[in-house]
Each structure stands twice: as structure tokens, then as C-alpha cells.
Amino acid sequence: MNINIICIGKLKEKYLKEAQAEYTKRLSRFCKLKITELPEATIPENYSEAEKEAALKKEAEMILSALAGADVIISLCVEGKQKSSEDFADFISKKMIEGKSNFAFIIGSSCGMSENVKKISHLRLSFSEMTFPHQLMRVILLEQIYRGFKIISNEKYHK
User: Fold this and answer.
1) Whole-angstrom Cα distance, residue 1 to residue 102?
2) Closest residue by Cα to residue 109 from 131, 132, 134
């Protein structure tokens, strides 16, 4: 199984890099993990709606080019569907049974994500109605993917 986490922006804080490294190590027994970091489009501090849309369009072009070979595309967005960890694991398991082995998870920028990316997604996933920093969201996503594999494998994992 191949998982590509496509993110706008880079991790900056050491503790987040360490957490990402830990989950990358843990996931290595379940999948081949790739993290694709794309640059955030530059946008003025007090941007207009048109400037925001232009930035999202530029980011969408980079995201779409990074999706090559993806069988299952999952966009993380606030308006997405919320799932329990068990339901998330079930979703992954069902896709694997269908013969899908190349998953792409997309984390947009601080401005969000283009509708052009969302509309090609097989799942729009929301972790909460709350807003999380994008860098922290990457670690949360890695943890939930790891938890999902533990559930699929019927292995114990702390609650």
C-alpha cells in the first residue's frame, strides 16, 4: 500500500518534525509513506477574495500534478464528513479490498483548498468543526492513519 500525504507548506517546529518521523517509522510496517510538501502561494496579508482564489488555483495546479497514480483521493476540509477511527479504518479497508493501493491525502493551505481539488476527491474528510494549524493537522492525520492500520490488523492500540 502506498500513501502520499500532499501538504501545502513545510513543517517548521522541531517537535512536529519529530512526531512526523515517529509516525513515519510506525507506518513503515503497514505502507510506503511519502510526504509531498508543496510551497504555499504568496498572498498579501489583507488579501481580497480574488487574490485568495488566485492563490488557491495556483496551489490546486501543484496538488493535481502531485496526484499522479492515486486510486483514492481524500481531501481534508472543514465541510467534509466526520468519521470515527473505526469508520475511517473501515473506509481504508474497503478501498483496499476493492484493489485500491495508492491513497493520496491532501492538506490545503491556510486559505483552504480549491473546489477543483475537492470535487475530484473520493472523500472529503473533516476531523472536527474546529480549526487546527495545518502543521499540527499533518501529525493528527498520520496518527489516525496509523490507528486505522492497527484497527484493520486487529492489533491493540492505546485509547
Assistant:
1) 6
2) 134
- Tell me if 76 sits within 8 A of 90, measured CB to CB: no
pLDDT digits (tens, 9 = 90+) for 4-42: 999 999 999 999 999 999 999 999 999 999 999 999 999
- Collapsing DSSP to helix, strand or coil, 118 comes out as helix
Alpha helices in the chain (DSSP H): 14-27, 49-66, 85-97, 115-118, 134-152
Q: Supply the pTM of this predicted model.
A: 0.94
pLDDT one-digit tens code per residue, 82-96: 999 999 999 999 999
Pairing of strands 102-107, 32-38: unpaired
What's the CA gap between 43 and 118, in Å, rounded? Answer: 21
Q: Which of 148, 135, 73 is nearest to 109 (CA)?
A: 135
Q: Long-range contacts: 64-67, Cβ < 8 Å, 24+?
A: 64/116, 64/117, 64/120, 66/4, 66/6, 66/36, 66/38, 66/104, 67/6, 67/104, 67/120
In terms of Cβ atoms closer than 10 Å to its own Cβ (0-12, 13-18, 19+), residue 145 is buried
**C-beta of residue 92 within 8 angstroms of C-beta of residue 84:** no
